[in-house]
Amino acid sequence: VGINPAYQVPELEYALQKVGVKALVAAEGYRQQNYYGMISHIAPELASSKPGELKSKALPELSAVIIDSQKSLPGAIKFSELFELPSEQAISKIEMLQSKIMPDSGVNLQFTSGTTGHPKAALMSHFGFVNNGLHIGNRNEMDQKMHRLCVQVPLFHAFGMVIAIMAALSYGSTLVLPTAGFKAADSLAAIVRERCSIILGTPTMYVDLVRRIVESGAKLDSPEIAVTGGATCSPKLFADIKHTLGVRKVKTVFGMTETTAVIFQSLFEESPEDVQQTVGHVTDHYEAKVIDRDGHIVPLGTAGELCVRGYGTMLGYWGDEKKTKETIDADRWLRTGDQFMLREDGYGKIVGRLKEVVIRGGENIYPKEVEDYLNTYPKILEVHCIGVPDERTGEELCAYVRLKDPEETIDREEIKRYCEGKLAYYKVPKYVRVLNDLPKTTSGKVQKFKLAQLFAAERPIQLTSIGVPSCASSPPPFRLATIFFISASSSEMSEWRRRCWDGCSSDEFVAPSTVSSCSLFIRSLLRLPLCRGLLSWLLLLLPVADDRLASEMQDEDEPDDDEDMDSASSSELEPDTSASPAPSFSALPALRVNSRRFSRAVSPPPLPDALDELEPPPPPPPPPPISAVVSQWGVLSR
């Protein structure tokens, strides 16, 4: 089990308890971290324990703490003494256990990045580890010559563990580890000194490395291939990497912890367009498909959720059978949670994360599209966009920007001018925040949930005068319903707009603490004179919302298969330039209440008398007939 060395005490305790660790190997400390002190804080019994015989209340399964230190520490085994401990009997037992290992046996537990909450522990197989390393190395041309790899990525993640270590072991390549923690200056020095021919890194690492090379004026002649993965890479950064590092190829890899690293990667020869606009070609002996929210395969070139199947699929989440079943179906298809488009030739393109889709007045906005464009602005070093609650449109974009020159400034008007004629008006971020440092994981992924927390801290939760929760609730948001009415006079509509519509968007976001208020609000609508009826689906929300909310609101980085809700057209939500009279009801859309989360599992209750004449909405149309499953060989089935 690889543990992130950046963890603080609560995170370390969570990880050790999650996997039930029996022996812990650690350095005494690193930078500001004192690991022995952290372990002693979690398990205070350590100091009074005999080495190898720890009995801790907080960590009941942990017995041995091994510390790499020159001095003896109370209750801990010195790492240098570890190799002297095994007896012949212990070695025989190890060999016996090794003989029972099968290809599908678990090889390690890999924690997910935790970019949206608590990380989960994915159990990998020997079969997936070996095959992924073999095929990754082949695609990265490691079979062509004896390469020297500059490994900037941490080894406790799938990127470092598989793409670096397993691939190098498969082809006898040399691994160069510049430093214990990423520093662009150390990476540059190692590349020059060791004449590295392949460089591995995340986009964030390449941003810093390119910047360091430009500042130092260094000239590189050894790098041939730059491999990027772990997060999406903008077209501008691709160009900067190739030009500044002087490599002949920039290769991209795309995958996730749950797939033992890679599911898409660059082929041997690709056009510049394919490199910059896709995440590569589906990897060898893997299958990929894209589905809609009902599980039907969508036509090629249509966005949907990416599902993959192959040797690298994890065995499951450790100690979490429910999440495993939600992620992997009975046919071993793994739902990635990525909004994706698949081409007939096997290339794929990330549209965004399903959970990151921003819905502004009914218009879908994929933050990645906006980020890619803003990253081309000369002042900007990197930018990341999140959706934030808005009382009028439901959600708006907030851009968190890191500038190339910390002394520079930038504001929304400058961003808006740069976007004119390039992005639709509703995609332009309403808010712009400048940070010198963005919250990131050790592997360089931006933790967008922390950005959402920063924004929420600026705007405390408020309630409107009629008790409707405002949209400024703290993340993660929960979309309750979209509501329209079927009959009302102009005066009634005016009263409705005055009391409700202007204070609460049609797509309301509700924090856990405000669900009861919303339930009371919805019930009160049935008593208003202006309201002649609501769909029976609305009644579904009241008895089940509280029960379902706990699982919906967990701040874990699980794949999410939900699609967008219907709402008013964003063209109706452009900024008002003058007051306008209340619209007549004939201009309003037809009645509908979208309860997408609950309608599948619960049958509607009997309608009250006032709603007897209403008809439920028609079922959705059947999926399009054109569909495909794509593998390395192209289309397998239609």
From TrEMBL:
Identify the residues that the record assigns to the AMP-binding enzyme C-terminal domain, covering every copy. Answer: 369-445
Q: Name one Pfam family in it.
A: AMP-binding_C
Q: Which keywords fit this entry according to its UniProt record?
A: Ligase, Membrane, Transmembrane, Transmembrane helix
Keyword Plastid applies: no
**PROSITE patterns, from UniProt?**
AMP_BINDING
Residue ranges with Pro residues bias: 616-626
Which InterPro entries would you find in this protein's record?
AMP-bd_C, AMP-bd_C_sf, AMP-binding_CS, AMP-dep_synth/lig_dom, ANL_N_sf
Q: What residue spans carry the Low complexity bias annotation?
A: 567-590
Q: Where is the composition biased (Acidic residues)?
A: 553-566
> Which family does this protein fall into?
Belongs to the ATP-dependent AMP-binding enzyme family.
What name has this protein been given in UniProt?
Medium-chain acyl-CoA ligase ACSF2, mitochondrial
Instruction: Give the source species.
Output: Anopheles melas
